[in-house]
Records
---
Amino acid sequence: MTKFVAREQHVLRDGTVELAQPTERNDRVRGSGIAHGFANMNRPLLAAVAAIGIGLPAISHADQGLLPQMSHDRPVICGRDTEGHVWRIQCDAASKVCLYAANDELASSGRRTKPLERARDCEIEQDFDRKKMEADGFQLFQGRVDAPYGWMRDERGRIFQINFDLRKRMFFGAAYTPQKILDNPLESKRTSVDFGLLSFNKLSDGQTPTMHRIRLVQGEVHVEPFSAEVTIAHWDVSRRFINPLLRITTFAGTPQRHDLHLNLGLWTEAGGLEIHPSAGGHSTIWKHATAQGTLDLWQSEDLNSFARIRTGVGLEGQHTDGTGYRSAIVPSSAFEIDAQLDDDGFHNIKFEFTHEAPRYFVKFQNGQHFANRLKAKLTYEAVILAINDQPLSFKLAAGGEKRDDIFGVPNQWAFVADAGLRFSLWAPPRDPTPHPAGR
Amino acid sequence: MKRALAIAIAVAIMIGARGRDARAESCTGLTGKGGRFATCFDLGNRLSMTTGSDGVGLSLALRHMITFEDEPDLVWKLEHQMLDATHATFEDRFTGVLYRGRFLRHARDGHIVLPLGGGSPKKIFLPFDIGGLAEAGRVEWVPGSTAVRIGVVKMAALFDLSRTRSFRRRIAFGPAARWDVDADRDEMTLTQHSVSPFSTLLANVRLESANGRSLANFEVEAGSVWRSKGGWGPDARAEATLERIVLAVNDHPISLVLGVRYESITDEVLAKVGARFVLFDRKDPRVQLDPLVRR
C-alpha cells in the first residue's frame, strides 16, 4: 500500500504539493481523501470488476515516467469521496489491482480546475467501499484517466493529441536551401513556400473499398530564381477489388486456382500552373486538365499508403515570353509511392517520378512537335511538435528535373534539395483501426 | 493616414465598450402596437451589396463553428468570404477576392506538445488560440494602366490573443506567405512575381459589438517581399474598416461603412465611405420575431 502515495501530491484534497511519505499515517490521509466514505460495494460494481478481469496486466506502463493509464477499452466507474470529489476507478479482478484518478483536470497545485476533456461517461457508484475491496485483496494505485485513440492524458488529466493524419489538413510551410544575404538576414535566396488549402482522404468502405484523395490549391513557389507550381484541383481514387480480374486455373497435377488482382483507379488534375525562368523571361505552362488510369502495385491495409504506376493524357498550353502561346496534348506516365511509415502518422514519405511528353500543335524550338519532361522528387515529412494539437512538421525534399520544353533551359538533369517546416491545421487522429478494407 | 487610424481606433474602443453594455439588452424590439423587429444582427452570415466612394461591391460571408461533444472546451471558428468584389463606378478600378477564409481553433487551454519523437510527450501551455488564414484569387487593377495584380495565394498562421469562443473579438497576428503576379491585361503576359515566403507579419484586430450593429476591423501586413524585378524590398499594407448599422428594412440591415487603406507599393492612401445593403442574412438566433405561443 505504499506505491500509490509516492505521487500523492496530485490527489490530496487540500492541494498540497508536498510529497507524502509512505507511512501508515499517509495511508490514512489518502484513504480519507478518496474512499472511506463509501458504503458496501453493490452488485453492478462487482459485475464491473468481474468483467474487467480479463487481460493482464491492468496497469499500462507504456508511457515511461508517468503514472499507469487506465485502459480505454475496459469499464470505468466513478465514486464520490467524503469531500464530494468524484474519482474514476478501474479495477482488474484477475490481478486485484485498481487504478484511481481524479475526475477533473488538476492544477499544478493539485486543485481541481475543470472537467476532463474527451473522457468517457462514468456512472457514479454511490456505494463504492474501498475497505471492502482492500479486504478482498484489491490494491489501489494512483493512475491516469484513459484517453481515446490518438490522444494522451498527462498526470493532471490534461489531454493532447499524439497521432496525426497529415492527409486531412490545410497546410503551409517554408523551405530553404541555405543561402542567406548577410546584409539582411531576413532576406533569403532560394527560399520557397508550399501550401495546400485542403487535403482530404475519404475511404468508402464496402465490398470494393475505395479511397478518394482530394487536394485543393496545392503547390509551391520558389524565389531567386523564381519558379512556381500550383494545382487548383486534384482527385484520385484507389480501389481494392475483392474479385480478381483474372482467375487462372492450372491443371498440371492437382488443379489450382491463381488469382490476378489488378487494383485499378483513376487520377485527375485540373487547373495546373507552372512558371519557370526561361532565356527570354518566363515560361508559363497552363495544365488545363489531366486524366490518368492507375494501377496500385501495393496498398496498405487502410489504403492510405500505396505504390502505383499511372498513365494517361492531358491538355496544356504554354506561353513563353518572346515566343508566344502554343497548345499541346501531353501523354504522361508516373511511378509514385506515398506512405505513412508509422501508425501515429509522424513519418511520411512520398516519391514521384514522372515523364511527360507534350505534343505541340505547332512546331517547337527544335523544329519538332514534341518535347520531353522528366521529373523525380522525394519528400520526407516528420511531425516534430504540435501547437494546440496542430502539428508542425519538418520537411526534407530532394528532386531532379530534365526537360527540353523551355527555351534556354539546357536539356540536362538539374537537382535541388531543400529543408523546411510545415504547419498544418486540422490533421485529426488517424483512423483508429487500420481498416482491413476489403480483406 | 495616422489621423484616420487614430479615429478608427477610438471608434473601435467605443464599439468594444458598447458591446459589453449591449449584452443585457433584448435583441427583439417591440412597437407600440406589439410589432416585433430585430435589433441584433449576424454580421458574419450575409450577402451584401455596398455602394460608396470606391464603387459598387458584392460580398458573400459565411461563418460557423464546429464543436465537439467529447471536448466541449474546443471549438473551431470558421469564417468564409467569397466573391468579395468592388468595381469603381466612374473609373476603371476593380478589387476582388474569390475566397478568403479564417480558421481559428479556440481551446480553453492552449498548449504546445513536445517532443513527440519518443519518450513521454510534454504539454506546455500557451496563452493564445491558433489558426490560419487562406486567400486565393485576389484580383486588382487600377485606372490608367493595363496592369493587373493577381494574388494567387496567401496563407498565414494566426495566433489569436483574444481567446474567445465567439466571433466577436479577434486580436491575431502571425507570419504570412503570399504569391502575387503582376500581369498586363492587354498583352496577356505576366510581368512580375512578388513572393513573401513568410517574411511578412500580419496583424488583425476585429471587434464586433454584442448586438452585431457595430464592427471594426484593422489589418496590417508588413515585412520584406521578393520581386522578380528588383529583388527584396520592404512592403506594407494596412486597412481599417468601420461599419455601423443605422437602419433596417424588413429586418435587413443597412449600414454606414467607413474605411481607409494604404499600400506601400503604390504609396497610395484610399479612403472610402459608403452604405452596405444586406440582401440576405441569417437571422440572429437571439431575435424572436414570432410571438411566443402559450400552450
---
Amino acid sequence: MSIEQSPPPRLQMRGITKRFPGVVANDHIDLDVKAGEIHALLGENGAGKSTLMNILYGLSRPDEGEVLLDGQTVQIADPADAIARGIGMVHQHFMLIPVLTVAENILLGTETMANPIFIDRREARKRIIELGKRFGFEIDPDAKVESLSVGWQQRVEILKALYRQAKILVLDEPTAVLTPQETVEIFAVFRRLAAEGHSIIFISHKLYEVLEIADRITVIRRGQVVGSRLPSQTNEDDLAELMVGRRVLLAVDRGKSNPTEPVLKVENLKVQQDRGQEAVRGVSFNVRAGEILGIAGVAGNGQDELVEAITGLRRPNGGTIQLADQDITNWNVRQRREHGLGYVPGDRQKYGLVLGFPITDNLVLTQYYNPPFARGIQRNDGAIEEWAQKMIKEYDVRTPSSSVSAGTLSGGNQQKVIVAREFGRDLKLLVLDQPTRGLDVGSIEFIHKQTILKRNAGTGILLVSAELDEVLELSDRIAVMYRGEIVALVDGPTANKEEVGLLMATGGRAQTEGTPSSGGPGAAPDPSGRGTTS
Amino acid sequence: MKKRFRSYAGKLLIPALSILLALVVASILIIASGLVGPDKQLDWTLPFVAYSALLQGAFGSVRGFSNMLVAAAPLMLTGLAVGVGLKAGLFNIGASGQVLLGGFAAALLGARAAGAPMWVAISVAMLAGILAGALAGFIPGALKAYTGAHEVVTTIMLNALIQLTVSGLVTDVFRAPGFTFARTAPAGNATLVGLGTTTLHFGVLLAFLCIPLSYWFLWRTTTGFEIRSVGANPTAARYAGMNPRRMIIMTMSLCGAFAGMAGAIEILRLGYYPAVFGTSIGFDGITVALLGQGNPIGIMLSALLLGAMRAGAPLMQIKAGVPVEIIDVIQGVILIFLSAEVIVRKIFRLKAAAPGTGEIQTFTRTYGEKVT
C-alpha cells in the first residue's frame, strides 16, 4: 500500500448530519475510505450506520455535510446515480430473484445488448466468469440462484456490484447469514478485492470479525463518531466499550447449573419440511429443568423443523414429545403454552411480533385472553398497560412510550419485547431460537444474562443458534445436529470449539461427503437443496 | 394528545384528498356533459351548480335528509361487511352475493311470517337475512381456511352463483301468483315502513347500532384482538396460539351477516324480492370500507357521504341537467385514487406512508397464502 503519495481518499464524507423527527441519526459524521482499504463501520443497532450508508447510496439526502469521491464533491441523487459513480451495496437481505440464473440476476438492469432486441448473453457470461476468476471465486453463470447456498448467493450479490464496476463496496453485515467456514471464505474474497484496489465498507457488530478483516475501524454511537482505531491498537473489550459507552461483559458468567428432572423428552422424532423431505430423522434427547441444552448446527440441518415440532407449529411425522410428563405430540400451540412452554422465535418480525401493533398488544400477544388482561370477553386495557410498563422497565426496552408500534423499535428492542413476553411468566421449558441474531453487544449481553437467570430459576432451556460462540458460551450440554440427526452430545463447559465446528460441518463422518452448504469453488448446485433455509 | 391527533389526521388525509380529486375529475365530466346536452354550451360554473344542488338535495329538506340516511344505512352495513374483513386481512368482495342471499331469505321468511305481529315478523325476516348472509360468507371462509382458495376468487364466483340461483328460484319455485312480473309473495307485517311522512325505517336504526357494536367488538374484545392479529400477521398469530383458520371462517361469516342484514333491510323496505333485484350496495361497500380506512367510524362517515350523493342526485339532475350516473363516476374515481395511493401522494407531494399492513394494502395485495 502506497499511501505516502497521498492522493485524495476514494471516499470522504464530511460533517454528515441527518435529522429525523426527535432524533439526530447522524451528527456531523466524518468518514474517509482509501482505495484498497477495508474500513469497518462498527456501532450498535440504531447508532446511525444505516442512515450514513443510505446517504452514501443516494437513498436519502443529508441535512448538512458533503460527500466527496476522489476529492470531488458530488451530489448522489439516487441509487442508480450511486451505482454510476462506482458505489455498490450488498444488503443484508439479498436482492436476488431465486428462479433466475446467476447471469440473469447479474444482468438485471444493465443488460448488455447484442442488438436492439436480444441480450448479449455470451458476452455477459464471459465477463462474469472473468470477474469470478479475478477475485477467486469461479461461479457457474447458468446455475439457478435458488440452488445456491447462502454463501454463494452473497457472492452473486458482490459480483453484481463488481459487474457494474463498483469501486466502493458497502457490505451490510455480510457475515450475519454465513457459517464460520463461509465467513473465512468470504474474507478471502474481500482481501482479494482490496488488493485489486477496491474500497470496502464493512458494517458489522461482530467485534472479532472486524478485528480480523478491517484495516481501519470507525465506531459510531448515537449518531456520532466516537472513535477510530487500527486493529493492531485495539481489542474486543475496547471496541465494545466504545460502541456501547460502558464496560460490557462479552461473555456472561454462566455459573453452575443444577439440573433436576427432565421437562422435555423427545423420542425418535421425525419431521418433514414443506417439500416433504424428512428434515428431522429420528431425534431423541431430553432437556432437564435448570439446564441449557444448546443445539449446534449449520443452518438448514433440521433445527427449524425440530423447533417447530416442539412448539406446535409443525406436525411431526413420527415419534413423541413429552412436556413435563405429558405427551404433547398432538397438542396445539395454545395448549403447549398453557402447559408451560415459552418460545422466542428465530424470525422475530415474521413470528414474534405484530409490527403494526403497539408494544402493549405485543406484550400480551400470547396471554391477552387470560385475566387480568381480559375480563370475560373484553380486554382490560388498564391491566395491559400496567403490565407493559412493568415489562418495559424490567427488560429495559428503550421506547418513548408503550403505545408506539413495535415496528418502529430497533431490532434489539424488538427482541427485548419478545423476551419480556416469553420470559416474564412461569415456564417449564423455554425454547430460544437464534435469540440474539442481528443484535448488538449490549442487547446480547442483556439477553444472555436473562437466559442464565431463567435457567437458575429452574426452567429447562433449549437453545438453538447458528452462532457457535453463543451455543458454547451458554450451554450446559451441546447437541450437534447434522442432516436431521443428533450426531453428538457433548458437555458444554468443556466443549472445544474446533471439535464442535468439525462435527457441525461433517457430522463426525469421513470428510468425503463434502462440507455442507459451503460448496467448493465453482460449486455445482447442491442437488439435495440443503443449505437453503426456508 | 397532539401525536394522537396527528395520527388521525394522517389517516384522514388520503381519503379526503381522494374525494377532492374525484370531485375535480367529475367536474371536468360535468362541464363536458354540458357540451353534449341539448343547449350545447361551455359552462364553467356547471360543476358548482351541480354540487350545490347535490348538497341541497341531501340536506335541504327533511325528506332529503331522511332519504340520505335510508340510502346510507345499507352502505354502512356492506361497508362493515368489507371493512371488518380487511381487519382480518380478508378482502370480501362477496358482499354483493351475500346481500342477495340475505335479501332473498328475508323475503321468503318475511312472507311466511307476514301475518304475525309486526315485531315478530320483522325479527324473523331480519334474522333469516342475517343467517343467510352469514352462510354465504361462511363458505368462502371455510374454503380459504381449509384449502387456501383465495376469498377474492371464491366470492366472485359465489356472487354469480347466488345471483343466478336466487333469480331463477324467484321466477320459478317461489314466484308469487297474481303479479304481472316475477316476484316473491308480499312480506306483509315484515315490511319496513317509513316513520311518519319520511322514509326512515327500523333498519336505519339497526345499521347505526352496528357501528359502535363493531367498533367495540374489534377493539375492546379479545376476539376482536385475535381477528386484528390474524389480519396484521397471521404467522405471529399462529405462533401466539391463536387459531387463524377459525378466525378466518368466523370473520367471513360475520362479514356475510352484515351484508345479509343490508340485503334484508333493502328487501323488507320494498316488501318483496323481485326477480331482478339490481343493487350496487354490495360493491359500493368496498368503496365505503376503503374510504373509511376499515374503521367503523370512518365507514359510517363514508356511508353517509355516499348516501348523501345518492339522495341528492335527483335534484342535481333537475337543477343542473347532470345525469345521476355522475355519482357512480365520482365513486369509481374515489376508489381508484384510494387504491392507487401512490398517485395521490405524488400529486400532493406527500411523503410515502410507512410500509405496513393497512387496509388498503390488504385490498391491493392479490396473492393468497395457505393458512395453516
